[in-house]
Amino acid sequence: MPADFFLLMKQELIITIIIFILLFLKIGKKEWQNRSLINFINTLLFINFISGFFAARNGVLFGDMFRTNELLIFEKNLLNLGTLILSLQSYHWLKKHKHVPEFYILLLSTLLGMFFMLSSNNLLMFYLALELSTIPLAALANFDLEKPRSSEAAFKMIISSAFSSGLLLFGISLVYGTTGTLNFEELAKTFTLHPLNLFSFILLISGFGFKISAVPFHLWTADVYEGSPVAVTSYLSVISKSAILFVLVSVLYHVFIPLNDTWYNVFFLLSVLTMITGNLFALRQQNMKRFLAFSSIAQVGFILVGITGQSAEGNTSVIYFILIYIFSNLGAFGIINLVSAVTGKETVDDYKGFYKNNKALTWVLAIALFSLAGIPPTAGFFGKFFLLLAGAGKGNYLLITIAALNMVISLYYYLRIIKAMFMDESDNPIEPVKTGFAPGLAMIVCVSGIVITGLASGAYQYIYSLVKEIR
Amino acid sequence: MNLSLLILVPLLTTMAILPAKGRKQIRIIALIGSVVQLLLCFILLYFYRQERKAGNTAHFLFEDNYSWYAAWKINYHIGVDGISVAMILLTACVVIAGVLVSWKAEKLSKEFFFLLIFLSLGAYGFFISLDLFTLFFFLEIAVIPKFLLIGIWGSGKKEYSAMKLALMLMGGSALVFVGLAGLYFNTNSFDILQIAGMNVPAEVQNLFFPFAFLGFGIFTALFPFHTWVPDGHSSAPTAASMFLAGISMKLGGYGCLRVATYLMPDAAQQYSQIIIVLACIAILYGAFATMMQTDLKYINAYSSVSHCGFVLLGIGMLTKTAIDGAVLQMISHGLMTALFFAVIGMIYDRTHTRQVALLGGLMKMMPFISTVFVIAGLCSLGLPGFSGFVAEITVFMGSWEKAEAFYRIATITACASIVVTAVYILRAAGKVIMGPVVNNEHLSLPDAEWNERLAAGLLIAGIVLIGAAPFYLSDLINPGTEMIMKKLTNLLNK
């Protein structure tokens, strides 16, 4: 039993250990230099990432509250990888920051929350984990301590996520009232089309929609993303969103089975709204962070198309797309993070003539944007293609026609950035930016991820086999 | 013969360009790469003819099939028939000519040649694909290089044109995607050969044919989605214009034929009249619009709309001869329009204008360039002896085989455009080449250099060869079109 306990919760335990190490470092007497501290933490995160690949095991703990299997471990590894990349990219920003250990403690706490959320097998456990993954994020949003906008972002975030948690809790209590259980497997059997059940389902979906900023629950996103530091924005829009999407897919595919037809229609509507709104708002954004925020709303719309597929292929495509999304979106955010930390410039106009002084950085950003737009040979093309194909699996060609046309709109605003970087002239283009080792490494990882995960089918086939195993 | 080499050589060329230093090294690598590719294409042609002579009657030769994404039954399945071999040869010629005319490119030459070769990679991959996913992959791969080539090295309102072109072509791809998805879910396969062997239900065909045809049609300037052509082609740098008009538009025609018509013959029958009407509008409208243009590049771009209308007309008529004509027209137009853009680029490099009104009497100072201009023009208006005549007459003869009044009227309308073509070509040639010298500064301009002569010579050789001995080409494409006809006639007799 104890050996089992340690092995099953291996990833969560390692993160907890790292958090404790950081706590001791913080309260310890020794003054650490930021550089060495960050390098030390990055090493720990790397060990954490690697250790995820060993001793995978299936099982449940705490009286069915916690479960784990190979697919979940894979998803957690993805989140680990994303966090590691993000940490490498934030090197220049953190170097000058006064509170490095706190940053990582909060960051890893949310990651821990996400891991528990992924592994939850019970609505109560799920709710607890969700809160653990959300509340520290609000503190993180405030991490540009001297900027009022950052505090504003944190405040907006905490208020709105408290509201969505309220909806979620109301939904959960209704579920318990009508079915008498909170366990996922039992819910899958006892859920019915009873109006009260449907109502609770709508509440739950609203809570989820809020966290993944699906339209019409997206209004908090733009301000929070703009106000937060770039590192936190990218964490919010990539890692945090991915985690919730993983859970959403697994809940929809394994718990709400009796409501399949109902939630199909709900998600049809949600995905169309999300794609169109996200795209329309992204068209005119001038701030790079805000632009990526809205474009990531549109991306969620595409992911929802894949979710409506209701098939093993749909499930696989969603996870595969998120893998690619982590590489591409973090790749794009990485450059913005770096440029913002070194020069403080964040608007699209600042990026005019970027190619003149920063050839390599421009290409990395361009490749990441092309991947987000879904242009081959980048992996984004494969991800989008399979998402839409999965969405067509139910014979709804209207949905994929809308989605395919939305890809054209999204191409416009990605190309707008490319145009600014390559073609526009500027009186004072951004000076050559020194990349440094850690952000450079992160860029290499992102670009090779973008190139390889698409052209080589290994990742997709691997996820497919994992998904098949679960079903 | 391993067809993957056709993708590998351009890929290696781009990889070799990356570490190269200096303009001279880069352009030599690009030239070597494209020459090797052309040799490879001739070897392919040789082996292909050997196989056919030896009595191999399979539809596609040199097939290779590897599983790529097994979960979706996606394979990397490649193979060629005569039509693809001809298109591949065309691509190789245009790419070499493109590299040669860009020989003096100074601005960011590494990026330029990298993107140009990368662009050609997409075309080669497209023409050898026998799997719809692979085909779509290679179709879309060109979006990045096209956008960047026009936007960075273009002239005039280049950013606007680059954006318009990228978005309209992406829109085309989006429609193609829906068509492919529909085919996939009704046949459970992406494989062109497998789908061709099945009987796709007629209502499925009727639903998805418009998506596929319209999508590919946008690439080949189907009216009313032709508006990207004039802007895109005229803003692009010379080599990119040559490639866009010469090859990219043919991707659409090839796709209409291979995917839409071949896989959904029922629906092709159903929609043929609409296609013919749209094609006739494109032919006439393109011709008349050309008459109004004052910019040499716009003249050629609008005339491309008109000429590509013949391709669609041939496909829409659905007779063996007309489809033969459509393929011939694709090849002929590819060579001719590339030559035209090349020569316009040469004139522009020297005089820095493309306005017909500001040019005159070029024959006096640039006899070689002027002669090439006239040859391209004569080919365009369909003078016997050049490829344009062969292609157009085949389309018309094929169209005439259909006796109903509708088809007759369409054919006559399309034929009438030739007169208009003659008007605008002869007028432009007369003014620019023959007329009096307009600008005395032009008198000191030099004639073509070796690289330009070579590029023009290569393309002219192709045009004259097809014009003088069309049977080589028609023999080559014959088995391919026969297979398509078999699929279509099976249906007529049903």
Structural commentary:
The complex is a heterodimer of chains A (471) and B (494). Chain A is built from 21 helices and two strands. By secondary structure, chain A is mainly alpha-helical. Chain A has one domain (2-470). In chain A, helix 14 (288-307) runs antiparallel to helix 15 and helix 15 (312-343) packs antiparallel against helix 17. The longest helix of chain A is centred in the middle third of the chain and has 32 residues, at 148-179. Chain A is globular. The two termini of chain A are 27 Å apart. The mean pLDDT of chain A is 88. Chain B is built from 20 helices and two strands. Helix content of chain B is 77%, strand content 3%. The mean pLDDT of chain B is 88. The interface between A and B is medium-sized, with 34 and 34 residues.
Give the gist of this structure.
The complex is a heterodimer of chains A (471) and B (494). Chain A is mainly α and 471 residues long. Chain A is built from 21 helices and two strands.
